[in-house]
Write a structure and sequence with these properties.
There is one protein chain. By secondary structure, the protein is of the alpha/beta class. It folds into 3 domains: 10-116, no CATH class; 127-154 and 257-428, Rossmann fold; 157-247, Rossmann fold (3-Layer(aba) Sandwich), CATH 3.40.50. It has 15 helices and 13 strands. It has helices spanning 10-18, 24-31, 83-89, 131-137, 157-170, 183-195, 209-217, 229-243, 256-270, 287-301, 322-329, 355-364, 374-388, 394-408, 446-450; strands spanning 50-55, 61-62, 77-81, 127-129, 143-147, 175-179, 198-204, 221-225, 246-247, 278-282, 311-317, 368-372, 418-422. A 6-stranded mixed beta sheet has the order 4-5-13-10-11-12, sandwiched between helices. A 4-stranded parallel beta sheet has the order 8-7-6-9. α7 links the parallel β7 and β8. α13 packs across α14. The structure holds pyridoxal-5'-phosphate (PLP). Pyridoxal-5'-phosphate (PLP) is lined by residues 155, 181, 183-184, 250, 282-288, 346-347, 393, 395, 423-424.
């Protein structure tokens, strides 16, 4: 699947894509002088097959027709679709006529009315091969990065927040709040601005400056808070009624995961409906990993893919590795990680409400959870930038560091097809400043300039 973009407003592209197809004969008739004028009624339904929401722990069903947070048991709610009905009326070949964005999967997404879609152009992201990294690792199979930095606001958070804010619009919500390590807050700010919804964003004090600045410029009220994301999440939850906020925290509303699910739908389509052998995913709250796992199950129910699944590999930093510890200990839930600290801010998540869902997906897939040192993250970020020309975010580089360990210890076969997720733009994070300076007033020393480092 290529990624050529048409210069077209994404909302308009979607409306065009779902406009009823007028058969060729009728179009010809329209040109005949005596033909009656054909009225084209605006088509407003997305044809979403959403039916209900279901508690991911107890299986309890609740309505998808009102705004919902957590399930009555206090666990994440998952969107359910009429997959049997969809199988009968939707064919994967129909996708080829649609724009290359995430709304091409709209039947399997929760937004019901086209006019509620809030879009900034959520393009399909490319799979970028990393041949130099593969050579270094002695890897003979494919090693590539799904480069999510190309999305609006420069991260995969655009997928989840496009969906959550579109649903917020559909429910007529006016005020949303989010605890965030940076990228999610920026994405929420952008989509809320476009939807005319008030946005309140709270991030840990160490959040990269650019995240805080972009969030503010995109119209949200943003605060740095002296706590970690789970503590800030508790504060948002406590205050939400008094403040009139709808809480858009990771997995505390059911639709961000539906947006993230499109990473899995897209990956399957890009592979010609064949999945890779392994997915390395930088895991904080785990929405993307859980979302992709859900996507694969839904695609199988539609008959679009078979039962084969990639190993799902949750990558964390040794400075904050609750999922890795729980995986190694064989527990269903993960204990909160004390004194969490890592330069990969997106995965500095000491406690995740969806811990059991992450662990379930990893175990069912035959995958594993793995932690890497910050020094290895920095080294791989520099290597891939210099040798493959792709500037990863630290979270993406963590996946490369994890691939090195898992390929060398045999957990990943040397001829396997590996996809790592570069979830955000490397440009948002601090980078070393090259110290070299040139003085135009001094004699030009060409040999010093051409000297190898
Ligand atoms: C760049 C980046 N990578 C990874 C993550 C973790 O994503 P998830 O919450 O889906 O585990 C985040 C979350 O903030 C992020 O910003």
């Amino acid at each position: 699947m290529g990624n050529s973009l048409r210069k077209i407003d994404p909302n308009r592209a979607l409306r065009l894509a779902i406009a009823p197809v007028i058969p060729y004969r009728r179009r010809q008739d329209k040109r005949a002088p005596s033909a009656p004028r054909i009225e084209r009624r605006p088509m407003t339904s997305t044809q979403s097959a959403l039916t209900h929401l279901q508690c991911s722990m107890t299986g309890e069903i609740v309505s998808a027709d009102i705004a919902q947070g957590l399930s009555p048991a206090g666990k994440p709610l998952l969107a359910r679709y009429d997959l049997a009905g969809l199988k009968a009326r939707w064919d994967r070949d129909a996708l080829s006529a649609r724009p290359l964005d995430l709304w091409r999967y709209r039947e399997l997404l929760p937004v019901r009315q086209v006019e509620n879609i809030v879009s900034l152009g959520e393009i399909a992201t490319p799979l970028v091969d990393l041949p130099a990294a593969a050579r270094r690792l002695g890897h003979r199979g494919r090693l590539c990065a799904k480069d999510e930095s190309r999305l609006p606001t420069g991260s995969f958070k655009a997928r989840g927040l496009a969906m959550a804010i579109s649903k917020a619009k559909e429910f007529g919500l006016k005020r949303v709040a989010i605890p965030t390590n940076g990228n999610a807050g920026a994405a929420m700010a952008a989509y809320a601005a476009r939807a005319g919804i008030e946005a309140y964003v709270f991030c840990p004090a160490e959040t990269p400056a650019i995240n805080v600045q972009e969030t503010a410029l995109q119209g949200a009220k943003v605060w740095r808070v002296n706590g970690l994301i789970h503590e800030i999440g508790a504060m948002v939850r406590q205050q939400r009624e008094a403040a009139g906020w709808f809480d858009v925290s990771t997995l505390k509303e059911p639709y961000r995961i539906e947006g993230k699910k499109t990473m899995g739908l897209e990956l399957a389509e890009q592979g010609g409906w064949r999945l890779p052998d392994a997915i390395l995913y930088p895991t904080g709250g785990g929405t993307g990993l859980i979302g992709m796992w859900k996507a694969f199950a839904e695609l199988e129910a539609l008959g679009w893919i078979g039962p084969a699944r990639p190993k799902m590999i949750a990558v964390q930093s040794t400075g904050c590795a609750p999922i890795v510890k729980a995986f190694d200990d064989g527990t269903e839930h993960a204990a909160a990680w004390p004194n969490a600290s890592t330069l990969a801010s997106g995965i500095r998540v000491p406690a995740a409400i969806g811990d059991f869902l992450i662990l379930r997906a990893v175990r069912e897939s035959g995958g594993f959870a793995i932690a890497v040192e910050d020094a290895a993250i920095e080294a791989w970020r520099a290597r891939i930038a210099a040798e493959d020309g792709l500037l990863l975010c630290p979270e993406g580089a963590a996946c490369a560091a994890a691939a090195e360990v898992a390929i060398s210890d045999g957990r990943l076969a040397r001829d396997s097809d590996i996809v790592l997720y570069n979830c955000g733009s490397g440009l948002k994070y601090p980078m070393p400043d090259p110290a070299r300076r040139l003085d135009l007033a001094a004699p030009f020393d060409l040999s010093a300039i051409l000297r190898p480092n």
